[in-house]
Structure formats: structure tokens, C-alpha cells
Amino acid sequence: MIAWLAMGIPVLTVIVLLVFFRRKTVVWEFLIPFVASVILIFLGKSIVEKLQVKDNEFWGGPAEYAEFYERWDEEVPCVHEISCTHEIPCSHRDSNGNAVHSNDGYMHSNDGYYHPYDVDDHPPEWYVHDSNGIRLSTSSAKFEHLAELFKSRQKVDLQRDYHSIDGDKYVATWPRTDETLEPVTTEHSYENRVAASDSVMNYPKVTEEEVAQYGLYDYPKITDYYYLPSILGNGGPSTQEAEKLLGMWNAKLGGPKQVRMWILIFNGGDIATGQMQEAFWKGANKNEFVITIGLDGQGNTAWTYVFSWSESERLKIETRNFVIEDQGKPLDLVKIVNWLAPAVNDQFVRREFAEFDYLEVTPPGWALALIFIVTFLVNVGCTLWIIMNEFEENLTGSIRQLWNGRRKFNWPREYSGYSGDN
User: Fold this and answer.
1) CA–CA separation, 218 vs 207, rounded Å?
2) How far apart are CA 216 and CA 280, in angstroms?
3) CA separation, residue 283 to residues 190, 256, 276, 310 (Å)
4) Which domains does the chain carry?
5) How far is CA 346 from CA 307, 342, 350, 410, in A?
6) What is the DSSP letter of 37?
7) Which pTM was predicted?
8) Which of 11, 76, 214, 377 has its CA 20 to 30 A from that of 190?
9) Is residue 246 within 8 Å of residue 230, measured between CB atoms?
10) Distance (Å, rounded) from C-alpha 358 to C-alpha 362?
11) What is the DSSP letter of 86?
């Protein structure tokens, strides 16, 4: 809404034209500053808002199968043309074997001799396909790892039309057992108006000093092509096993339940730390369920705080109660994951962020300033063009011309009062 205040600039532009340059301005030219400003403000506001509401979430799923495409080559039409000149004449044989000499035109090669085709070489490629229907480029080592894990390596003859290297494909297929499940995580953008709006939840702005003070976690990056940890921090001896277990469940439930579970471990702090983490993540992404757990100096459970946009409040309460039952005891992450996964499967309901479409997003100060400055410059440009162009009829003359044109219009007889020849 504030951005549209820039429409005051074309109003001032029109006043300047009326007062100082009326004889240089025709009627339709008064519309130019308004039209240009409306388009500019609309585009600027839309682009800034699109950037503000853009957010990313993580999707999980098992690797369904992996592919290895061998190197191969094929014949393609020649594209290496070189010019023929008097200084560099071209000579080649045509399709009938006759010698052809030319001082102009093109030769279909880069060495001065005719040939009917080039050869394109295609390097080997490796891909992983997950249960969400997403194909990811991967490495030879990852393919071999999956082929060994799945105990699968099937050759597929692609029946290629090749030149000299007939590359085939090899496929490794997941046997659908938990022991061979390979979690795959991908990142996807979506519209998050909640995080960009100040009118809902009113999460406090978390400063860099507070991030360091509370030891807050930023979202990690996907590494090793498609791996993303599910447990952040050190929860003791059970962390590694629990990480593998929770990663498996994030893959199994990622598609059917549209959920991503996190466990965040803090050394020290209190519930305020968990609340600060929630503010830092702006309530987390729409598909996430987050458990924050604090440990005392001996590695025992000290506090927990759960947050999520899930509409199931009962799930949050039951999770908090389950974790805090072991307060003062060594943290057992495997126990928590084994309880959490079935509970999430039964109760988690992802919230539809479409219900927040009504939220107004205010552009940041720098964006508003930029919109006003560019609108001002565009109006200055419009004013200079209007003054300097060849149209120099004033407003009064333009209106008079339109009126006279109307009077000169040849109306049909039945409307013109014509009663016959005189």
C-alpha cells in the first residue's frame, strides 16, 4: 500500500506541465506519466514481494532407483562452417565424388575438407530417482554405493543410433526394505507470507548476537548430493544411531505425510532458548515438526520445547510430555525417535499456507526508496520527452479541435435534422 503513494509523483508532473508547459502538451500526453508510473510501481512492488515471500522447504523420500548411462557417440549434421575467399579458396568433393572449387560460400568443416557429419561424444551420466518423482544428478561413487546396497545392477540396451560407441544403461533398483533404504532430500521453494509479514505471530527479530548467545541453528545445507542431517547438535552416544533412524523416517513419511522432523540439541539454556530458535526460524517451514532439547552439564535432559505449524496441538503436547518424562536422565535419542515417528504418522497435519494469502507484505525501506526514486526519474524523463517532441498544441486548442471534429462529423440524415434538398 505504501508503494502506491509514489503515484503522487505523476500528479505533480501533470501540475508542472499544466502550469509551465501547457502549450507544449497535448491532451493524451498527460496520461503518459500516470501509465508509466502505474506499470513501474506495480512491477517493482510485485518483484520485491515475490522475493520477500519466497522460502525453501525440504522434501524427503527413499531412493527408488539409480541409473548409469555409459559414454556413447552419435553422428550429427556438420556445423563447423568456415568462409571461402579468394585468399583462402575452398576445395572439396560433392556427394557424387566430383571435385568442387569455390572462392565464396562456406565449407562444412574446420579443416578445409568436406565431410557429411560430425561426431558428438556424450560423457557418462549418473542419476538417482526418489519416491517424489525427482531425478538428481549424482556421481559414479554414489551409483556404485546404491548398486551394492540394493544388490541390483541390471543392464538395459538402449538401442541407440550410434557412431562407434554403443553406450548402454545400468539400473539399480531399491528392494523396498528398511535395511536398504537410502534417504534422499531435495530443496523446494514455496510462498511463505507468514515469515514476510509483521501482522501474524509477531516473532521478534533475532540478532546475530542473540544467535551466538543462545547457540541457535541455521538450516544446514544439503551435502553429498542429497544428504541432509535430521539431528543438529551432539546428543551423546545415541546420536549417530538416532540420526540414521530419523533420516529413514523422514524419507518414509516425507511424501505420504508431507513432513520433515528435526531434533535440535542445546547444551545448557532453558525453554527461552527453544523459543528463540522458533523465532529465528519464523515458526519453521510449513512441513516441519521441530523438537528442541536442552542438556545439563552431565548430558541429562533438562528442558524441551516443541514447535510446528501443524494443526495438531495434541501432537505437540504429547511430544513435549514424552521427552520431559526423562528430565534428569541421560538423553536417549533412539527412544525418542522410535516414539516420535508413529505419533507423527498418526497425528501430523500439515497446515495449508494458502489460508495466509490475505496477509499484506510491506516492502522494506530500501525497496520503497528505490521505487520512489525510479518513479521520479521516469517522470522527469516523460516530462522532458513531452516538452521536446513535435506535439505542441495546448490543452485548450486540443479540446477545441476535438469539439470541432465532432461538429464536422457527417451524421446520418435521420439524426442531423436534414429535411431534403434546398
Assistant:
1) 13
2) 8
3) 15, 22, 10, 10
4) 60-180 (no CATH), 201-356 (3.10.310.50)
5) 17, 6, 12, 80
6) H
7) 0.74
8) 214
9) yes
10) 13
11) S
